[in-house]
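Fold this sequence, please.
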Amino acid sequence: MNIKENTRRVCVTGLMLAMIAAVSWLEHTLPQPLFLPPNFRLGLSNIIVMYCFFFMGRGSAALLNVLKALAVLLFRGPFAGAMSFCGGMAAILALLLLNLLFGAGLSYTAAGICGALAHNLGQLAAASVIVRTNIFLAYLPSLLIAGAVTGAVTGIMLKAAIPLLDKIRRL
């Protein structure tokens, strides 16, 4: 890559991170959906991370997850930062595995569901290690159901958002 292409890539990655921050802020201003467990969110910022995974490269998606977790660490503390990092990286690993298995045949909805389930399991594992208890396993059934629903929503929304995100990526 030449300097111009590197500069453009850094700028687009910065724009994607800014969109993640804006969508996360917006999502936290919305009331808690009734069908979700307490403190559970739709994970709308994951739409942008999945877009980066599919269209900007796996490294860009992982970098955005790390930067997102650092922002969470700074604004919400170490527990939330660890949860964000573990959940996000578990989702990236799940997407990598699915991509190896299905390649171009992987649907955005399936990716959203599997990514959300992996994210929830990563957060559950982090919470169990940090607090040193298995009490969080009682939360598992509701996390799996909610993860499947929210993952389907983010996968569908990703498909709808691709034309807009493509315009931003091609700036």
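The CA atoms of residues 42 and 150 lie 5 Å apart. The chain has a mean pLDDT of 91.
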